[in-house]
Amino acid sequence: MRIAQPTKDYIREDKDLLALEWNAREIRSAFQTAVALAEVEGPKRQGDRTAVTAEHIKTVVTMSKHFKDYLKDLYQKSQDERAANMLLRNDISRSGAGGDVGAQPY
Question: In what residue span(s) does the AAA+ ATPase lid domain sit (predicted)?
Answer without folding.
Answer: 1-77
